[in-house]
Amino acid sequence: MANIKALLFDLDGVIVSTEKNHFIAWRETARTLGISFSEEDNEALKGVNRVDSLKQILKLGNKTVSSEAFESLLVFKNNIYLDSISTLSEANLLPGVDALLRKAQSMGVKIGLGSSSKNAPMILERLGIKSFFDVIIDGNGVTHPKPHPEVFLNGAKALGFHPSECLVFEDALSGVTAAKEGGFLSIGVGNPLLQHVADVYLNNLTEFRLEEYA
Ligand code: B16
Ligand code: MG
Question: What pTM, to 2 d.p., does this model score?
Answer without folding.
Answer: 0.94
